[in-house]
Fold these 2 entries.
Entry 1:
Amino acid sequence: MLTKLWPLTRLATSKLHWNQQLLTTMSTTTKSAHDTAVNSFNLNHSSYDIYRPSFSPILVNPFLVDLNLATFNKQDNTFTFDNDKRIVEIACGTGKFTKNLVDNGWSSNLSAVDPSRGMLETFRENFPQVDSVVQASSYNTPFDDDSIDAVIVAQGFHWFADEESLKEIHRILKPSGKLGLIWNFDYTSPSQDSVVSDSNYYNSGTRYYNDLDLTSSKNNQELLSQFFGNQKWNDKVTKYVYDFDVKVPQYRHGKWRSILLANPYFKNEVLDSFALYDKLIDKDDVWKYWETRSYITDLPQEKKDEIKGHIEEIIAKDTNEDSFDKDTQRLIKPMGTHTVVVSVRK
């Protein structure tokens, strides 16, 4: 078994030797990372880093508590982070979520994993202090059995929501370990198909929070539909772009939830939490935000130009003074963040 995590940032003189040793330590499987995901992120990693949203500590810190990586101090409303706990972040991308872990004190006990060469290129530029950076998929990781306290996947589990991935994550987690998933999302979907609980909702910076009825027994989908309906332009743009999402797995499809509820590797008790916020975005950046989607990146340029033009038409037609933040004059885009925590079955 591998006793040292081999940082890709230190491989200038021994890359071939490292690759040979890594191959002998990974689990064997016939599956690999989704081609569309890897190809897309190899191409658009820089744009992804600029235009995709980050993750607010307002939800991330309670998420880390749920993962047994932090404790909440009620007396002064602060969090204490256990940096001795070992974390593997799979599908780390450019580090949109990693920033929270680094800011909270993790570096030596943090390993970042991604199958995309392009994503890791930007990741290394963003986080030179993270030594353990591994180009690998969720199906093959170079970590010892029962060695990791928590595995975190941000904005990525839908790409590999199957038993083969869960088996590998199960292998490296300690008996007390947990798997944590987190997504930013644009719209209501089957992924939120559960009954709302006000204790698991957080206001991460939306002007519409107080208008929501969190005390009733509404389904999350019903509640979130009300929330996203506050901005007509965004509602139309989102539904329009989703029409092109026809061949790749996505968070919003909700298929990832069924595998969590029925597999031999994790307990079928799913802890869901949500945070709602307003993303302020320049009109010209709306297209750039959507262009980072894998199913848009994969389209020919002529089709991209057509989509861009239609998005601009919707913004021109369906915005008014209430569509813009009065201080910045940027468009208000309602957004949500969803966290999911499950415990390993060992």
Note: Residues 8-185+201-206+249-278+336-343 form a domain with the Rossmann fold fold (CATH 3.40.50.150).
Entry 2:
Amino acid sequence: MKEYAGMVATQVAQVLLMIVSKAAIADGMSSYSFIFYSNAIASLILLPLSLANAHRSPTRPPLTFNIVIGFFLVALLGFFAQISGYTGVSYSSATLGTTLLNLIPGFTFILAALFRMEVINMKRGSTLAKFIGTLVSIAGAIIMTLYQGPSLIPNLLHQQHLLLGQLSDWVLGGILLTIDAIFASMYIITQAIVLNKYPVVINLMFSYCLICTVLSAVASFIVETDLSSFSLQPNTRLFSVLYSGIFGYAFLVTVQSWCVRRRGPLFVAMFHPVGIVIANSIGVIFLGDGFYLGSLLGSVIVVIGFYTVMWGKAEEQKIVGAHLSASTILDDKTAPLLQDVEEQSTSPTP
């Protein structure tokens, strides 16, 4: 259950990251300066962990040229995802950002199938479960966003809060957030490929945050004309970048990367629909939001879709386990026979 607990924790961190990034950008920070500070703080946190891990793991795989290129590609895709995501949130809202991240399971499933990271056999119930469950989860997230329905719990504040934001430039924000989902899916798949060849999560994530820091700094000096966006005053900006660097990057991306290595890219991607359920729960419990029939129906549908995919993954693991057990039994049975043949061939002829 470690991976499940870790992914739920990352989704809570992701929702809160959407909220604090919206607050910082609304307070005058640019997407580039926010990404720069967040990745710089995360790099400082992960640096000593990476160095300590290097001493504990002297037998880790060597850093070849192809692995270094893989590190850079992971960081580049992640940087593009961050830029399009934060810019999309600035044009729309944190809720829309959390909702459109639910496109990631669909894109990731397609890419994982193309790269043969997922077993695709439409005659198997497990494959159908993964396919249908992914679609159901996305549909549930869309229902939670587009359908409100009658109120089950009244809105205590009787006003929109930061999580919902303003509806300005909604279409442009939605397009950018969709692009973010595409880049995020490519980032997860590339990460899985790199970790298969170099399974050292801390080193990969430190390199990721460091490269993103450099890329955002270069992009800022090229694109930004007002350097006041780098100011950490007022305190809203300072709190936002501290939260983002510690929990939004150092914690979130490292735990996600660990889960990618342990359970595969689709497992990680399937937790994004859970994020919209967490976002609504935070809104009701802590921000005094109303709870509506659409939120209840959408949450139930998301959970059904999520468990359908997890059931399909579990069935595939059973099949793999059965094949491994059969291979082990076959080896045990043939080993004495081979030993007898070798003994007969080496024994002296009478």
Note: The first strand starts at residue 151 and ends at 153.
